[in-house]
């Protein structure tokens, strides 16, 4: 549950920054993949951003931790993030 709260707070910070309140569609897709896709698909999605190897490995470790959550909990966390994104993109 702590991880979900962390992701939620980071998303809120990214969305509601004064300079630009719209969220990049590619990042939105990456967030959906983070919560709902299997690790292999998430890894492919993550590679679109050309992250450094260390950052990619760190995100995969976090993804493995998130994948231990029940599917229903991951869906709820994703729905919460989507709710924030929809408010920020108005």
TrEMBL record:
Main location as per UniProt: secreted
Molecular function GO labels: phospholipase A2 inhibitor activity
Keywords annotated in UniProt: Disulfide bond, Phospholipase A2 inhibitor, Secreted, Signal
Annotated SUPFAM superfamilies: Uteroglobin-like
GO cellular component: extracellular space
Record's subcellular location: Secreted
GO biological process, one term: signal transduction
Signal peptide extent: 1-21
Coiled-coil segments on the chain, per record: none
Classification via Gene3D superfamilies: Secretoglobin
Entries under InterPro entries matching the protein: Secretoglobin (IPR016126), Secretoglobin_sf (IPR035960), Uteroglobin (IPR000329)
Pfam families found in the cross-reference section: Uteroglobin (PF01099)
Keyword Secreted: yes
PANTHER family linked to this entry: SECRETOGLOBIN FAMILY 1D, SECRETOGLOBIN FAMILY 1D MEMBER 4
Similarity section: Belongs to the secretoglobin family. Lipophilin subfamily.
Annotated protein name in UniProt: Uteroglobin
Organism for this UniProt entry: Desmodus rotundus
